[in-house]
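[step 3/7] fold_predict: job queued, chain A
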Amino acid sequence: MESLARTFDAFVASALPPALAAPHQLDILREVLDYYPATLSTTLGFESRLAEAAGQVDVAIRIDGKARNQLAALRAPQAPDRTAGWQYILAFAARWSDPQSKVSERIPHVWLEIDAKRLDKAAGAIPSLFCAVQGLDDLSAAEAIDWISESMVNTALGRPLSADARANAIRCVEALPAHAALWQIGLMPSRHFEGLRLCIRDVEIAEVEPILAHLGLSGAKEALMQSPPGLLGLPSHVFLDLDVGDELGQNVGIECYFRSDRLLEDWPPRSLDRFLDELVNLGLCSDAKRQGLREWQQEDLILQRHHPDLWPTHLQRTASFLGPSYVGALLRGVNHLKLTLADGQIQTAKAYFGIIHEWVTRLDGRIQDKTAGPQS
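[step 4/7] structure written:
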């Protein structure tokens, strides 16, 4: 059976600049991905700390609803330090696979994120679980958090939220402007964190400071106020990440997204380049990492008709079934950058980049005049 290591070798390993991942790190990522079947996902994400020399690169696997049965069918590693953690994750996957459940209805996809630290610990490492959520807008803050606690936390971690964590999570949701919404819930058993991460969308950057002030996160608020003028005006939009346990986490994440129309503007967006330049000036990103991210995006669209033998077998079969009207396309790029605020300053900057596969028609403007393929 082919694994996601095949996808990684075909489209990532040879294209990943050394500044983003050292050769030994590629071996760790390959070992991590070899645990998962290739049919589980066609979207892989990677995380890199921008101020560090080429070092640890974590990997994330997006699993859409159509593949949730495959997740539930995985076998827990037979290792004392991993079996229990995996059993809870697989119990969640089984519940998610039930088409009659609210979990199935309200979670369109999940990400498994693996901290890829050591080769001897890579295979079957316990992942963190990040669940996209929908359909919670009509619930009160307490109702939404109680549903998350019962349906997600209790199942995937083996225990519900504590009373203090529940109260803090409700307080965070109640502090949001009416148009903001929960979009992803993070559970991190691999980090021995018993709370959850609330990922919040539709927040204007001007609204972040009052939210932090309301929650008493003074160190993050001060970091935001001290950030260089114009830095956080470059993203097209931002998301807010809050860690919630028996106490509120003092580290606050600001996810910065840069969107443009690939057909009408230069890609990658110029604002992303300017943002990276600012991070280099602040000492939050190395020159090598900045250049590595630029190189990663140079060939941003790869078509299956170029070197088709490189593509995983299941995609080759699907292409044969769909016929000539559709083209397999692999998009490669930077999804977002993330700043961590704490203790009155920006502590770290990270890049989240990866690949995603799509089936597009031959009339799609993105594939006109595309002649380059992956380098063999």
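[step 5/7] annotate
DSSP finds twelve helices and eleven strands in the chain.
Residues 4-367 form one domain.
exit 0
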